[in-house]
Amino acid sequence: MLSYLLVLTVIVTAEAQKIQGVQKDDSCVCKLSSSIWAFPTVRFEGVQKQLQTCEENVLQFIKKVKDGDVQLPMMERTLKNIKTRLKRFEYLNTSGLYNSLHLQQLRDELDAIYYTASDAQKKSPSKETNDLLKEVTNARKDVENMYKNNIFNLETMKSRLRDLNNRVQTCKTIPDDFRSTCYQRIMSNISSPVVTKLNSISKSYISGAWGRDAKRGSKERYWEHCLVSGNQLGNTVRMYNSYEDFMASKNYKDEYIASSYSHANAVQGSGTILYDNTVFYQCYGTAEICSFDITTKVTKRMKLDGAGINNKFPFCYYSCRDWTDIDLEADQDAVWVIYATEENHGNIVVSRLDPLSLNITHTWKTHLFKRSVTSTFMVCGVLYATRFVNTYQEEVFYAFDTTTGQEINTLSLPFEKVSAGIANLNYNPVDRRLYMYNDGYLLAYNTFS
């Protein structure tokens, strides 16, 4: 039997296999195992599963990328918003509520209070000034003990120092006629609006101030001041020589305080007041008070040490009113400036100005956080603060009496308005009216009636 070698080449995973055949009858018979062609089912299923898992992972990754494209801008906006909201409170970390007051600063402030109290005792001795001197002396001793014993209860001492300072300010000499017309200590009534009028320029001018010359015995003059450039700046005040002209918006004269909105003497913010034909206001971009004499066209400046500006301590309560860091008010024969400082933890500080020399004569520090109120005004040496009730109602809820240093938190004097926002509120001792600039509307109220 003739044997033949039948060579079959089978490619299985890149390998050749030889198979020997045998002739049988007229045929060549060979035994071939089909296992060499078996399909790798298990391996195939494993690869298929891996592909499926890979596909799912890719789809999930694509979804995350798409979600990220949507979420990242939202996260960036949220982060910017948080940074903006926190920026106004940076002072609390740098030199505000959580930063201890140095003992040397305490010493200096106590020394200043002691010398002021001593001067008041020499000029007008009384039991009150004598007692005050004793308390200041005791406080100075306590500070010395803090040095010796290394006990630093600075915040408590700071609060004690503030109260002593307010009492000393009250003891300082004030003109005899300072409160001659103040027959009632605390305001008890505010009428419905007796004047309601849109400003003479446009309803879009939502920030500004208006009123009547607050100097007793002065010529009857009404004034109007509207802010431009983002409700921040101004350089003119519109003057009227009669109430009739004001109501009719005619026969007015625009007095130029500065040559442009960006001039160093331009007005910043809505805390403007007119006293004895002189405009008092915050100078552009600085913690300074300017006075512009309309008659002589002379501008004076005075630095307001430590005052927060550029929306650091604006009036807020319901919503912040930008550029209201410094508020000027007039009362009797004085001009008042209301502001806040880091040193007083953002609480309201009240300073009395001599309107002629433009010097600070007295300063009181309150416990009222400036951002927690809508607006303030002064009546007979008493600071009043208001808060938002709703779009059409405001409420006087707080008073600080500079005569006694007493703070009253239980007031509730509601009064009407025509819109939510208040840019300026000032009291006039001549006609005993409150004047409000209310989102472009000019309102006036009777008081003490």
From TrEMBL:
Signal peptide segment: 1-16
Record keywords, A-Z: Secreted, Signal
One of the GO BP terms on file: signal transduction
Keyword match Signal: yes
Locations listed in the record: Secreted
Database matches in SMART domains: OLF (SM00284)
Presence of the UniProt keyword Transport in the record: no
Domain Olfactomedin-like: 181-449
GO CC terms, sorted: extracellular space
Main location, first listed in the record: secreted
Entry-linked SUPFAM superfamilies: Quinoprotein alcohol dehydrogenase-like
Name under which the protein is recorded: Olfactomedin-4-like
Organism of origin: Cyprinus carpio
